[in-house]
Design goal:
The chain is built from 11 helices and 10 strands. The strands form 2 sheets. The chain has an 8-stranded mixed sheet, with helices on both faces. Strands 1-2 form a two-stranded parallel ribbon. Helix 2 crosses helix 3, helix 5 packs parallel to helix 6 and helix 5 packs across helix 11.
């Protein structure tokens, strides 16, 4: 690796290594872009793409993100934006789980949906999208539904799981699986102008308590639909929670449910014991 370090140092400008130099190094030394990026960060240099992160997410934190794994369950309105943002901030491995393909009604809000991806599996579109954004990030696609039986395999090695689902039943399955596996779960859901967000840590029953009075398969999104602005906002909040958990920074939304009302531009918080 001495030769790689010499190459990176000689091609660094002001401690920054360009994407072009990173990709040339990967080809020259027969390494993955992620392995080269790791060496850049270990050596005290910074990939040019993360320069605007560096005042908040230090190079040491950036290395933690690169070596981390997040599981995104559901790759539609919420999950697609979460995958986009986690890949841009540099989470090294993203497990994408979703059984569905894109349909026309997804075009109103899902960032991975466009006229060229209609009919494509959502997880396949996620792989393509991330490969075009950040070659150091690996997306592991699973075109399936997470169940109690396969959750252990799908969530293995993840530091955090993110809920991009639209079914209360599936959310509760995910919550139980994360609890059993010791994985923090970031939950988000949207309906029309409204959204909510919370984070459940192992040993807690926050989501079970939040949905205890619900007797429907889906929530009010069935009646109100889903808007792009609401999806983008709540997903961004989910991504922020996931990054905070990975980095052990800030205060996560433990036993607190944040409600968002974009129609009146109002935000509230409700304590949840569970």
């Amino acid at each position: 690796m001495d030769a790689l370090l010499r190459f990176l140092t000689s091609h660094a400008a002001g401690g920054r290594v360009s994407l072009k130099a990173q990709m040339v190094a990967a080809e020259r030394f027969c390494l993955s872009p992620a392995r080269v990026e790791e060496e850049i960060l270990v050596s005290g240099l910074v990939p040019e793409r993360y320069v605007r992160n560096a005042q908040t997410v230090t190079p040491v934190m950036q290395l933690v993100l690169l070596r981390s794994r997040a599981a995104v369950i559901g790759c539609g309105g919420l999950g697609g934006y979460v995958i986009e943002e986690l890949s841009r901030i540099g989470v090294g491995t993203i497990v994408a789980v979703d059984p569905d393909t894109f349909e026309e009604h997804n075009l109103n809000r899902q960032i991975l949906a466009d006229m060229t991806t209609l009919g494509d599996p959502k997880v396949v579109a996620a792989v393509r999208r991330v490969s075009a954004i950040n070659p150091a990030v690996t997306v592991i696609p699973h075109r399936t539904t997470l169940t109690a039986e396969n959750a252990g395999e799908l969530l293995a090695g993840a530091q955090v799981a993110v809920d991009g689902l639209d079914s209360i039943r599936d959310r509760l399955v995910l919550a139980e699986a994360c609890g059993a596996l010791g994985i923090p779960l970031v939950h988000g859901s949207i309906a029309g102008w409204y959204g909510q967000l919370t984070t459940q840590f192992p040993g807690e029953q926050t989501l079970q308590a939040a949905f205890a009075s619900c007797d429907q398969e889906q929530g009010v999104e069935r009646e109100l639909g889903c808007l792009s602005c609401t999806a983008a906002l709540v997903a961004s909040m989910e991504a922020a929670e996931a990054v905070k958990i990975i980095l052990n920074e800030g205060a996560p939304l433990r036993k607190r449910l944040v409600s968002v009302n974009l129609l009146d531009m109002d935000m509230g918080e409700t304590p949840i014991e569970g």
